[in-house]
Amino acid sequence: MPRNVIGVDIAKHWIDTYNLESGTASRIGMTAKSLKAFAAGCTDTLVVFEASGGYERPLAEALAAAGMAYARVNPRQAREFARATGRLAKTDQVDACVLAVMGRALELSPTPPPDPARTRLAALVARREDLVDQAAREANRLKQAGDAFVRADIASLIRVLKGRIAKVETEITAQIASDETLAATEQRLRSAPGIGPVTAASLLARLPELGRVSRGAIANLAGLAPHACDSGQMRGQRHIWGGRKQVRKSLYQAAFIATRFDPALKALRERLEAAGKPFKVAIIAVARILLTHLNAIVRDSRNYMPG
């Protein structure tokens, strides 16, 4: 753990910082020059900030370029920590202070520096998903449209969107092939049932921890770990929550397909459904087991082994 912790609250045009060691707060403009100067002064310091929909990227890049440690945390985790410590007010300076205290109290581990190849892959995967969503919305509109001109116009746009999706998919394939590590990992992932090119690309882009952490940790990151809801002698129903939504969505779809091809996963699904578990609960359980297998094959540099 670095000797000092600085919490940073990020806005569009500036950042608010709180230095835990000195107890000082400051506001810095969100410019390349200012962020570079800030990063240069973060020796033996862990900088803690929230994932802010991309606004945090310039700060992360400046810190990585300077070789400084930082931890990017989930905003909900930070807010719940604030409530747990009695900090109910919410201002930029208060949030920066909370993040600094959180970094020290929880002894947060530094976030690995970004891999340029994965960063670009993540951007391409996100772009494909945006286009797919647009195409789906237009397809729904086409079903409802009655006017001939409107129908023709919607159909024309759907054709354009499908063309853009195909172009992005080609670029995703090229991006993976251009990086030796990504290409090798994709090949191993696709040896598993239910893991096609789209799911493999999503996992490569959004779950870089795959193969590097324990089965419990990877399930938490993907939002597939069941959490207890017990009190006294009452035993509540376990629920999944948190984690990375898009990763969970990809694995859910993959698990549904995998139960058609892997006898062990099929037997697990049938056993759970026979025990009265809802369909979605059974598929989530299969997805968690599938993710455990994927974590192992990446860790051990091997292909999937059924059973």
Enumerate the strands of the largest sheet in spatial order, edge to edge or round the barrel.
Answer: 3-2-1-4-5
The termini sit apart by: 41 Å
Low-confidence stretches: 227-231
Radius of gyration: 23 Å
Element string (H = helix, E = strand) = EEEHEHEHHHHHHHEEHHH
Shape: globular
Biggest sheet overview: 5 strands, mixed
Tally of DSSP helical segments? 12
What's the overall average pLDDT, rounded?
90
Q: In which range does the helix fraction lie?
A: 55-70%
**Strand composition percent:** 5-15%
Number of strands: 7
Structural class: alpha/beta
| Total domain modules | 3
Describe the protein:
With 307 residues, the protein is an alpha/beta fold. Helix content is 58%, strand content 11%. The strands form two sheets. A five-stranded mixed β-sheet has the order 3-2-1-4-5. Strands 6-7 form a two-stranded antiparallel sheet. Helix 5 packs antiparallel against helix 6 (148-177) and helix 8 runs antiparallel to helix 10. The longest helix is centred in the middle third of the chain and has 30 residues, at 148-177. The relative contact order is 0.08. The model is unreliable at 227-231 (pLDDT under 50).
Any descriptors?
307 residues, alpha/beta, Nucleotidyltransferase, domain 5, 3 domains, 5-stranded mixed beta sheet, two-stranded antiparallel ribbon, 12 helices, 7 strands, 58% helix, globular
